[in-house]
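Quick one before lunch.
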Amino acid sequence: MSDLTLGVLASGSGSNFQSIINNVESGFISAKIAVLITDNPEARAIERAKNHSIETLVIRPRDFEDKPAYYSQIAEELRKRGVTLVILAGFMRVVGKALLDQYPNRVMNIHPALLPSFPGLHGQKQAADYGVKLAGCTVHFVDEGVDTGPIIIQAAVTAYHDDTEDTLGERILKQEHKIFPYAIKLYSEGRLSVKGRKVIIKGDRTETPVINPPLN
Ligand code: GRF
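Model of the 5-O-phosphono-beta-D-ribofuranosylamine complex:
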């Protein structure tokens, strides 16, 4: 049993959060989920946490003087619960230095595009509008930029000329639900290390599956 303790930050539906919960419960990821922190009291992620008896904290930026105070508080709550890896599962904010300093290369994010293309909001719409033929998603460690941190794993999906944000987004989301748990599993097994911009996956040439649907 790994001693990995996850803290999840989410703002919305939490389908990625759910996929992580399922993969922890099935034993695919050896870890425990200590807490869900959300900035949105209406987030569906809260209900998901409740269903699995995961503690939830609603921490809203408007209750704090500034961004450093907000992220210091979040870091403190995570630290108190022994969190060793922070998971951004649809947390719709640019995380502050006050948290990143406490968790260097220990904050993971999922982005719905093949970075470095289409960072920021609505990655799926940006890709659909641009007319790419391959779209996808990326799990990366978080740095102070917007979706700029070292890339851990990516998955590609076919994009069609008549895709919309929603149709493409749905195809991408299915892959998100696979690669995010997979990245956490790699971390929990101590197989990830960061050298500059690059994430080295121990054994990647033999063991990391390429998660791509066949072209048809
Ligand atoms: C996902 O598309 C993720 O890539 C992005 O926000 C969305 C969250 O979806 N960061 P959900 O809340 O996990 O359903």
